[in-house]
Design a protein that fits this description.
This protein is α+β, with helices and mostly antiparallel strands and 152 residues long. It contains four helices and seven strands, in the order E-H-H-H-E-E-E-E-E-E-H. It has one domain. The strands form two sheets. The chain has a four-stranded antiparallel β-sheet with strand order 1-2-3-4. A hairpin with a 3-residue loop joins strand 2 and strand 3. The radius of gyration is 22 Å and the shape is elongated. The N terminus is likely disordered.
Amino acid sequence: MPAGSEAPGPGLPRTWRPLGPRIVAIVLGVGLLVILAMAWISFGDEVRSKFTTFQRGTVVFFVLLGGAVLHALTRSRVTADRDGLTVVNGYRSRRYEWAEVVAVNLPTGAPWVTIDLSDGRTVSAMGIQGSDGAKSREAVRELRRLADELSR
């Protein structure tokens, strides 16, 4: 390597996370809690006393279930390091070696990046979302560059 040139993949590890789903999850979660709290407060004592423990538990269960879904959306990410690529979609995490990554694509109008693998599979990477605009296009360019440099 010539003097003064950079080693492949400077700044690694690098993680990309979508901005849009995090904003939506926060707004939706806070909004849901505010609406439920206001509804509960607006009920009179007589109406609140008619709710059984099971009914209250059901509401709590669905709030927690909704929170788990929103949390899954917000934890989506793509992490690149010298050894490979980790793709986290919801609660599922996959690890790929750089030699497996053939192409990184974000077609116009696509919701998120797709990664073509050497065995013919295509995997979605929700950590880079098309709705993030220029930020997502820059992430795709950077990920393609890393795949080209580190898959050799």
